[in-house]
Amino acid sequence: MTASSSRALPLAGLRVVEFTHMVMGPTCGMVLADLGAEVIKVEPIEGDRTRHLLGAGSGFFPMFNRNKKSLALDLRDPRGAAVARKLAASADVFAENFRPGAMAKYSLDYAALSAVNPKLIYVSLKGFLPGPYEMRTALDEVVQMMGGLAYMTGRPGDPLRAGTSVNDIMGGMFGAIGAMAALIQRGITGRGQEVQSALFENNVFLVGQHMLQYAITGQAAAPMPDRISAWALYDVFTVRDGQIFLAAVSDSQWVTFCDAFGFDDLKAAPELSTNNKRVVARATLMPELRNRLSGYSVAELTAIFEAQGLPFAPIVKPEALYDDPHLQATGGLADVRLPDGDRAGQTVGAALFPITMDGARLGVRSDPPTVGEHTATVLGELGFSAEEIAGLNKDGVVA
Questions:
Q1: Residues 176 and 31 grouped into a single domain
Q2: Which pLDDT tens digit goes with each residue over 124-157?
């Protein structure tokens, strides 16, 4: 765990109550927590299901639940629901990502909570904004398929989900942006409001550039592997010992590229003198470039492109980022203690929120919590006596 800065963080003093699970909702809470808010994660007695996922889900909980407190309670017990409502009455922000109507069963919907706490910012993170689709069950995969992103990512006829939870993570971020905007407005009007963010609409925002491409040109966007590139040199090359992405996105960069490799014939060719001409000639130009560059190593090409200020990127697997010298030098990773599973108690590196404030990264102030780690503390702050807390614990209402 990294030591946090002694300076006050932007959202210090704000209380966020988070009834969320999976990735989208916890991402929203993590953004607010990283920025300094006190975030109380309310979990079922058995804990958030993502604590125990395997495979691709094993990183969900430790990645998106740092800097939070955990309160475990049984909402199905009226006493548990009453605890939740009392906690919500103390909150500046309330975040949830359950099916439409689910929170109303416990009087934890915006209408019920705002009647008691009119300054409350209520962040509702859903699959779809209100409309014909709102009752559908959504996943990141679902909205990628129906929202054009999987079509754009895969090869023609082979739609492919993007390689990370892009809509879940960005949808959570947009929820946090909405919450912060609502907090600013509350400072002016004195009133809270409901903020909604949704996976499908987030996905449509992501592919909006391709929608506009069609609206402007009348030409449908082709899947990325089959696209007509805007630049001739803009692709992955297989070289002597691996793969590397290389690009030259202007005429001056093309000249620089040719000079760096001694390709005077290509620089002088009239049919390659402008970017658009090179795009037209791409079918013959790219095989020629692949042949000429195939004998280089990734390290050699990296050195040349970096020295010339040309765009490049070795193809890196996620696990290799732990050894990335830039991330290590800039503090982009921080140790967190795993709260669950076979490796509970061990520390691993986690990616930090990708911004600096006043020249510093937003660090990890507290590790991802164990289930109910802060239940007694939070209930005590709400005015419950030790005897009342013990009784609720004994009856399985809290843990």
A1: yes
A2: 999 999 999 999 999 999 999 999 999 999 999 9
Contacts of 53-59 with C-beta under 8 Å, sequence gap 24+, read: 58/341
Q: Are 368 and 339 in contact (CB under 8 A)?
A: yes
Residue 369: inside a domain, yes or no?
Answer: yes
Q: Is the pLDDT of residue 96 over 70?
A: yes
User: Tokens standing for 68?
Assistant: 């939070």
The DSSP bridge pattern shows strands 15-19 and 93-96 to be parallel
Cα distances (Å, whole numbers) of residue 330 to 334, 351, 362: 11, 12, 12
Among 271, 297, 318, which residue terminates a domain? Answer: 318
Q: How much of the chain exceeds pLDDT 90, in percent?
A: 95
Name the residue among 261, 292, 249, 145 with its Cα closest to residue 204.
145
User: What's the pLDDT at 267?
Assistant: 97
Domain that holds residue 40: 15-206+354-394
Do the domain assignments include residue 111?
Answer: yes
Per-residue model confidence as pLDDT tens digits over 349-367: 999 999 999 999 999 999 9
**pTM beyond 0.90:** yes
Q: Are residues 45 and 190 in the same domain?
A: yes
Which pair of tokens denotes residue 31?
């953004």
